[in-house]
Design brief:
By secondary structure, this protein is an alpha+beta fold. The protein is 16% helix and 17% strand. The strands form seven sheets. Strands 14, 16, 17, 18, 20, 21, 24 and 25 form an eight-stranded mixed β-sheet that branches. Strands 6-13-11-10-7-8-9 form a seven-stranded mixed β-sheet, with no helix packed on it. A three-stranded antiparallel β-sheet has the order 15-23-22. Strand 20 and strand 21 form a beta hairpin. The longest helix has 12 residues. The protein is globular and about 60 Å long. The two termini are 28 Å apart. The N terminus is likely disordered. Bound molecules: 4-nitrobenzene-1,2-dicarboxylic acid. 4-nitrobenzene-1,2-dicarboxylic acid binds next to loops.
Length: 623
């Protein structure tokens, strides 16, 4: 495996109007838990992760300083994640005492260790300048360099971390699937098997049971191509794959280099012309002998994302080929899924996607029952404002849901794994604009202000999770963003998912929904790549005459009318999944949501947690 494939990446946010708290990861590395057996050599992380270190003994391993004994302070785009990941390749040991943690804490708390720009005005951000020369952090006086002990992958867990999945883990069982909604969770290693029944691993998705694969297109953010190739069944492994990504410059070069051993892999770079935008969209287009299938999901194409996190996906029905000579409008679904998917793909304006656009036109997508909700970067005016982001969701909710008596008391629930900067108070975006979309039900002009519950893991949730503190490497909410919006935290609720067995599998899934006050009915449900950020959902500008969207995002919206229902009943006990037809919607976490207690704190990834060890006996000390 080439070192170039060993990358995780995070996008640095440098503007108040920016993205998901996708901030510079602290340097450091993770001590691996040597009690666990070695697994694959492709232990690629999803992220450049702050370190967790053993509580005992006091020797901690830290990431080596990169060239010239210094740590770049400011990375731009996915290069940030790649640089930081590269730093994890050669950890050095140095002696320290437990009090070091306190020292680091101070450095982080006063911000001296970090140089994230927090401009309120995007137009003032000099992207080029920032990207060109990362600032350098003076070497820590306490850090004594020692010889490199052994090579380590830039994994949040280390090479020895992953435990092998049980024998039956990859047994794909199609009849187990609940077909009404076609909404599935991923399999989680370490769960009682009943909780993985009806869940899908990437190997299940690519299995011949779903179709005879000829070609595929993988849209995603983070890739381990060697690992990805292994997930395809051997008989399909050399079939052409097109990778749609947002990497630029060095990051792009590293991605392309990952594919050197795989001549069947080609690339399509999504244009990202607005600062701090990212290609978050996670979608597979699977071309079969029998037709084609679309998967819209929340997992990156790296092992850590399919291991012990809660992820979700929508799997389309098999879309068959239309008869030769069908009209251009043929094969449309009641939800206009075909038109909207073609419009989303056209927005890339990429010649590499042309063939696939033409082929989709030749297929029958009429069985799709969901609405597509995408974001593509741009500044949109007039009717184009409703094409993407939250205004697209608002339009769909306006057109395809109906007011419900008493709906002013129906809460909104938002659940996500990353948080952007939202301004000094709730009126700036959250309540003023985002909540207005989330509370739209039909065309009724009566504007209600129901409760909004935001689900985001607390420090305790992360500490006691299956992965322990390293799970926090995929929850990149930074102290710099958090401390500017303490008002937001009063909305926060815990990550609890006992009913799905996933209380200890930290969420990388993102869901938004409107639910009855007794939490038994849904007015609608959305699964998406979009976190709680303006970059993902779009923000109004110029006196509300324009909306600006930074990132590519994709999700699917379930509305009851597309299922001939008034509301979706919430499925009480989603596991084990039964093949009997239940019309209950499998909400992936426990209802009602549990509010944070006064002791609970939202997970913030770049401050230390050294008061209590995690499930692997480690603490978390960003340096
Ligand atoms: C991703 C996420 C996420 C958050 C931030 C970034 C990427 C992702 N980022 O989904 O939680 O650009 O830094 O996994 O795609």
């Amino acid at each position: 495996m080439s070192q170039d494939s060993l990358h995780g990446k995070w996008t640095v946010s440098s503007s108040d109007d920016d993205d998901d708290g996708e901030n510079l990861p602290p340097s450091g590395t993770t001590t691996s838990n040597s009690s666990q057996p070695a697994a694959s050599i492709h232990d690629l992380p999803r992220s450049a992760t702050p370190p967790s270190t053993k509580l005992e003994p006091v020797t901690v391993e830290v990431k080596p300083e990169p060239v010239a004994s210094s740590v770049p302070l400011l990375f731009i785009g996915s290069e940030a994640r790649q640089m930081a990941a590269a730093n994890q390749l050669n950890p050095v040991k140095y002696e320290t005492s437990p009090s070091l943690a306190g020292k680091h804490k101070q450095e982080v708390a006063d911000g001296s260790g970090w140089a994230l720009s927090d401009s309120d005005d995007d137009d003032k951000v000099d992207v080029k300048g920032k990207g060109a020369a990362p600032k350098r952090k003076p070497p820590s006086p306490k850090a004594k360099k020692a010889k490199v002990e052994n090579e380590r992958p830039p994994s949040p867990h280390g090479r020895l971390y992953y435990i092998d999945e049980p024998e039956d883990f990859f047994e794909t069982s199609v009849p187990c699937l609940n077909d009404i909604y076609r909404f599935y969770l991923n399999k989680v290693t370490g769960l009682d098997r009943k909780y993985n029944c009806g869940a899908l691993h990437i190997r299940d998705i690519l299995s011949p049971l779903f179709g005879t694969l000829k070609e595929s297109v993988q849209f995603n953010y983070c890739f381990d191509l060697a690992w990805m190739v292994e997930q395809y069944p051997p008989e399909f492994r050399n079939r052409p794959v097109l990778i749609v990504h947002g990497d630029k410059r060095e990051a792009k070069a590293r991605l392309v280099k990952q594919a050197q051993p795989f001549p069947h892999i080609k690339f399509c770079q999504a244009k990202l012309d607005i600062a701090f935008g990212t290609h978050h969209t996670k979608m597979m287009l699977l071309w079969y002998e029998e037709g084609f299938r679309v998967i819209i999901l929340t997992s990156n194409l790296i092992r850590a994302d399919w291991y012990q996190k809660t992820q979700g996906l929508w799997m389309s029905p098999l879309f068959p080929r239309l008869p030769e000579g069908s009209s251009a409008s043929a094969g449309e679904s009641p939800t206009f899924f075909k038109r909207d998917l073609l419009e989303y793909l056209a927005a890339y304006r990429a010649p590499e996607l042309e063939e696939c656009i033409q082929r989709i036109k030749e297929h029958d997508l009429s069985e799709a029952r969901v609405y597509l909700v995408g974001s593509t970067p741009g500044r949109y005016v007039g009717s184009d404002m409703e094409r993407w982001g939250h205004l697209r969701l608002r339009k769909l909710l306006c057109d395809h849901t109906e007011a419900i008596p008493g709906d002013e008391t129906w809460p909104v629930i938002g659940q996500f794994s990353s948080i952007g900067s939202m301004g000094l108070d709730k009126t700036k975006w959250l309540a003023g604009e985002f909540q207005r979309t989330m509370t739209t039900l039909g065309k009724s002009s009566v504007r209600s202000d129901p409760p909004m519950h935001l689900l985001y893991p607390s420090v305790e949730d992360v500490r006691t999770s299956l992965e322990g503190y390293p799970a926090g490497g995929s929850l990149p909410y930074s102290i710099q963003t958090a401390q500017k919006q303490l008002w937001l935290h009063s909305y926060f609720h815990r990550w609890k998912a006992d009913a799905t067995g996933r209380s200890h599998a930290m969420p990388h899934i993102k869901t938004f929904m409107r639910v009855s006050p007794d939490f038994t009915q849904l007015a609608w449900f959305l699964i998406t790549s979009a976190n709680l950020s303006k970059a993902a959902w779009g923000a109004l500008e110029k006196n509300n005459t324009q909306v600006m969207v930074r990132s590519y995002e994709l999700g699917v919206l379930y509305v009851p009318s597309a299922f001939s229902m008034k509301t979706f009943p919430v499925q009480k006990n989603p596991f084990p999944v039964s093949s009997s037809t239940s019309s209950g919607f499998p909400v992936p976490f426990d209802l009602p949501p549990t509010p944070y207690s006064t002791k609970d704190q939202p997970w913030i990834w770049n401050i230390p947690y050294n008061q209590a060890p995690d499930t692997h006996g480690n603490v978390w000390i960003p340096s």
